[in-house]
Every structure is written in C-alpha cells, then in structure tokens.
Amino acid sequence: MSDRSDPAVSRRGVLTGGAATAVVVAAPVGAAPLPPRPVKAKPMMPVRFTVNGESQSLTLDPRTTLLDALREHLHLTGTKKGCDHGQCGACTVLVDGVRINSCLSLAVMHEGDAITTIEGLGTTEALHPMQAAFIKHDGYQCGYCTPGQICSAVAVLDEIKRGVPSHVQADVAARPQVSNIEMRERMSGNICRCGAYSNIAEAMAEVAGGAAKEDRA
C-alpha cells in the first residue's frame, strides 16, 4: 500500500502531470489548418400536387413542411405559421377535403393531393359563406389565426355532415348533431389569442343553419 505522503501520487503531482500531457498532445503553434470538409449537396425531391385548383410542381428539400412549401415556395401567405408545433391551428389547410396542420406534414407526402388554402375558399368578390359569417359576427380581432380558424370551421361542418364522431358524443356510433358544444369541441385545436371564440361559434352556427335549410329543401 503506497504512502499518502509520497509526492508521486499527491494531488499537486497529478495536476502537474496532466497539464504536461495536455501540452505534449496539443497541436503545435503555427500548424497548417485542417482542410475544410466537403459540403454535401442537399438531396432534393420533386413533388406535384394541386393547390386551390391549380397544378403545382416543386423540387424541394424532403424536409420541407407543407406549410413552408405553401408560404415560401408558392407565396400563399394566407396560411400562417404560429407555433410551428401543431398546437395552435393557425396553419390549418384542407387536403382532399380533410383539415390538417400543415406545419406537421412534409410537402413530399402530398404527391397528387388536392390542397385548399384560405386563398382557395373564396375571393373578395365571392366570399365563402364561412368567410362572410366571420365578418358578420366579428369572428376575428387581430386576424392572425383567422385563416386557420375558417379552414377548420369549414371542415368541422363537413365532418359532422359525414358522421365523423367526436369526444363529446355519448354514443360515438350515433350520428353527430350540430350543436354549440359539438362545434366547440371540434374547434378546440384552433387557438385564438384574442378570445373571439363565442363569435366564431356564432358564425359557424349561422353557416350550419343555412346548410341545414339547404338539405331540407
């Protein structure tokens, strides 16, 4: 067993030896810099889909989200980037009639799909009924979440019409009915920081009532 007083194994000796070793293995001063590593070109992929009735062909980094493809490559900036984590619903668009959070979906996954953004729902000359109802009932304040809210609201009424169940139904096998609680539950993924929820619900109820009258006609 070694003597603790032996300077060869003292704390000072260990530290001094370590520092000396570091000096020996360090690169000498003035040594030539290492050559830069070659940068590999990003792999690109083609994708074709229809956006608001128009055929679009893009060549994208496969990591590009559908949201960024719409905003940065097709310049359809009506679709908003909010949280970019699928939590706020500002980026909601319709893909083959079904709403999705475009920030969570890669563009290359939508080869051949039909995509509808807020720009494709209506125009200033011919508003979609939901757009007109949002204006009538003041369903927005700052307006940032509004494109996603409107796209989601249109899809919600279609879901109810198609019989897609929700969490608030007592019997998920029964056909869902248009009600305030039903619409609020289905719209819960769309966040309005301004708090215009009651006005949004009123706008949706008006459009739902109009659709019901058309179905009875």
Keywords:
217 residues, 5-stranded mixed β-sheet, 12% strand
Would you spell out the secondary-structure blueprint of this structure?
Layout: H1 11-25, E1 45-51, E2 54-60, H2 66-73, E3 92-95, E4 98-101, E5 114-116, H3 118-121, H4 129-136, H5 146-162, H6 180-186, H7 197-216
Parallel strand pairs: 1-5
Antiparallel strand pairs: 1-2, 3-4, 3-5
Describe the structure.
By secondary structure, this protein is an alpha+beta fold. The chain contains seven helices and five strands, in the order αββαβββααααα. A hairpin with a 2-residue loop joins strand 3 and strand 4. The model has no long low-confidence stretch (mean pLDDT 88).
Helix content: 25-40%
Strand residue percentage: 5-15%
Distance between the termini: 101 Å
- Category by helix and strand content: alpha+beta
Largest sheet, in brief, is:
5 strands, mixed
Mean pLDDT: 88
Secondary-structure element string:
HEEHEEEHHHHH
User: Within the largest sheet, what's the order of strands?
Assistant: 2-1-5-3-4
Shape, please? elongated
The DSSP helix count reads 7
- How many E strands? 5
Unreliable segments of 5+ consecutive residues: none
Radius of gyration: 29 Å
Summarize the structure.
With 217 residues, the chain is α+β, with helices and mostly antiparallel strands. The protein has 7 helices and 5 strands. Helix 4 (129-136) crosses helix 7 (197-216).
